[in-house]
Amino acid sequence: MAEYIKYRVPAKGVSATKGVAELIEKAEEDGVKTAWHRLLEQQPQCAFGQLGLCCRNCAMGPCRIDPFGSGPTKGVCGASADTIVARNLLRMIAAGAAAHSDHARDVVEVFKGVAEGRFQYYRLTDVEKLKSLAEALGISTEDKDEQEIARELAEVLEWEFGKPGDEPLRMLALAPKKRIKVWEKAGLIPRAIDREICECMHRTHIGVDADPVSLLLHGIRTSIADGWSGSMMATYLSDILFGTPKPIKAEANLGVLKEDYVNIIVHGHNPILSTKIVEVAMSEEMQELAKKYGARGVNVAGMCCTGNEVLMRLGVPIAGNFLMQELAVITGAVEAIIVDYQCIMPAIVDVAQCYHTKIITTEPKAHIPGAIHIEFNAEKADEIAKEIVRIAIENYPNRPRDRVHIPKHKIEVIAGFSVEAILEALGGTLEPLINALREGTIKGIVGIVGCNNPKIRHNHSHVTLAKELIKRDVLVVGTGCWSIAAAMDGLMSPKAVDLAGPGLRKVCETLNIPPCLHMGSCVDCSRILIVLGALADALGLDISDLPVAGSAPEWMSEKAVSIGTYFVASGVFTHLGVVPPVMGSQKVAKILTEDVEDIVGGKFYVEPDPVKAAETIYNVIIEKRKKLGWPL
Ligand code: NFS
């Protein structure tokens, strides 16, 4: 169904990534709208919403506050701009923490099933990591076999979500002691993940918490539950089940799709499904089946964070990040996109109707009208994965040959930098990294994470910020859509050392690593927390003393809000490249960008221009170095 395209997108200007413009042009020729087109149709977007000043939390509303003071200054219940903005932000954090942590719950359930011997298609792959996590959480591993350890661990982790009482989350055992003290002092220790999220919803209900400070502090507590427990669990258990990533070579960008192969894209977040699809699709049986249908074989590529999961562990090529999901369909060369949940635009179903691509949803909690729904379940993982892959293969003869256009661009990427892999590259100890930091060979470390947002030039801020930092001898690590952007720009290939400053270059060449390290999917931001905690502990410092920073240059999702908040909560200076919807309250904006630093040692900094942001971030790193008495 071709659509009438009212507004055309200036294709050449919207993305920094090769191949995107040609597919936007193709979309317009084919009469297909993308997120960029729909954003134009949405203009002008609601200013009250952008400022965070609209409240829909009860049916006396919707209420909106006039930011200039010439209209109403209070909602019907009397809520002020400060209350409304803080409440709205708290709900964003709650949704983000819920998404990460519910993903973690699904991984815990499979892990538990494996521990109990119920799921024959999964196994405990990294037993070392299993034991180390169990011991960190106070579970003795002596004289126990791995199944027994896993069963005990599963029980503890299950309770993280809804345990009663005021005891802290058990996973906080992985956080540095100095941080715990900071959180204790400020009353920020989370008790149970579901409880904190639930309390966000309670506090923001009509007539409960009206104080912006108290609302935001609870937001910080909830985000800590996400970063240090929910997301952390997802990472640890995925590593235990599928293996802890090691440096691995692959390719990135839409050019990884193959003209004469059945192309399958795995998209979403959870490795439980995507890993199985990859395994099954690569099997002899499926490769042979593809040949029967006239293809040379089956090619699987990843998209977004589940793409990162299978890239990190299996070297599966990555086709693109968030804003490229529709473009993958527009190539006309994709037989199926198999999704689980999160960051999946319902629009891919509309786009798919113009081509032959089948969109297959698999999660009971993520249906999309118009998609084929095949419910996944871990007990029958291989059978279901086969059924899904078969649908993709059988769809190959339907490919509209005259409308296929795969951009040529693809580039080498080295991914797989888990904490363990970084340690191994360093020779088993943090010492070389600490020395390089202390001496100033590397000035600092910045973690860049998060999404794409069509309001700003696609991937431009991601790569510009990273380039500006590495040339100043700042090591860049990161996850999510940032890491895909960096990969597609060549920043994760060994050649990228040419773009690094002399100090960073020397370190990268000695260790044989690129200057930008791919640490995984968005839940793997927890890996960054672990690195920060380990560095702080080794130096006898708190994370807030370290010459480090965080950034989400192109963020858009509520998950990114939760991530940004737990970085700040962990003591990190955190940059946002898209203005969050808080500007309707000067008070809330000031708390987030100034006052919060006195409580947790980190704060937010908002700057849309990535070059200016790099300068400020670098200056913050230099200030931290000065305080430590390290050479500048
Ligand atoms: Ni994370 Fe953003 Fe989504 Fe991954 Fe990409 S949009 S918050 S980076 S895919 S979760």
UniProtKB/TrEMBL annotation:
It catalyses: CO + 2 oxidized [2Fe-2S]-[ferredoxin] + H2O = 2 reduced [2Fe-2S]-[ferredoxin] + CO2 + 2 H(+). Its cofactor is [Ni-4Fe-5S] cluster; [4Fe-4S] cluster. The gene is cooS. Keywords: 4Fe-4S, Iron, Iron-sulfur, Metal-binding, Nickel, Oxidoreductase. It comes from the Archaea. Belongs to the Ni-containing carbon monoxide dehydrogenase family. This is Carbon monoxide dehydrogenase. Homodimer. Pfam families: Prismane (PF03063). Gene3D superfamilies: 1.20.1270.30, 3.40.50.2030. One of its GO terms (molecular function) is anaerobic carbon-monoxide dehydrogenase activity. Its EC number is 1.2.7.4. CDD domains: CODH. CODH oxidizes carbon monoxide coupled, via CooF, to the reduction of a hydrogen cation by a hydrogenase (possibly CooH).
